[in-house]
Amino acid sequence: MSKTDNILFIILQVIAWIIFVGLSIEAGGLIVNFVFSIFSPDMLPRLYNKLDLTGIFDQSSATYYGLYSFILIISLLKAVLFYEVIKLTWTLKLDHPFTLTVARQISTISYFTLSIGLLSYIGRQFAKQVERSGFSTGSLDVFWNDSQAFVLMAAIIYVISAIFKRGVELQDEHDLTV
């Protein structure tokens, strides 16, 4: 393995950490917004992202909790997804990549990615249904506008996981024959 590959891998680890920290801050900010929206809604314009859904809460608390649940779960899953990516980068050895642990971690990442995509799609459909009932949900599109990309990415990661599993099997067979 070349020195350039090692440097690129370290850069990818740093980028994964940066994305993880950013997603964790976003999820934490949304949780704080949620708590303040329940106990002190007058503070919302001064909080993170200014996600103020008090108009929806005033009209229907069930709709509010449903929409916010989708937002919080998707944000938390994105943070967990990148935590799994960081775990993978610590486990993966570039000179000996085909291990069962790495194959399982890649498979787990594909499941998290698929979950984010499906929940984003369901959340978007729920928001459209809510909007037909007269609620304004246009500001929430940023939370689920990339659902198709996550589903496609999950499929690609799953294929990579299957290749790794097959690589582990071939490596085990090779080790037994030698």
TrEMBL record:
The keyword Phosphoprotein does not apply. The keyword Transmembrane helix applies. InterPro entries: DUF2975. Keywords: Membrane, Transmembrane, Transmembrane helix. The chain crosses the membrane at residues 7-39, 65-86, 98-122, 142-164. Pfam families: DUF2975. This is DUF2975 domain-containing protein. It comes from Marnyiella aurantia.
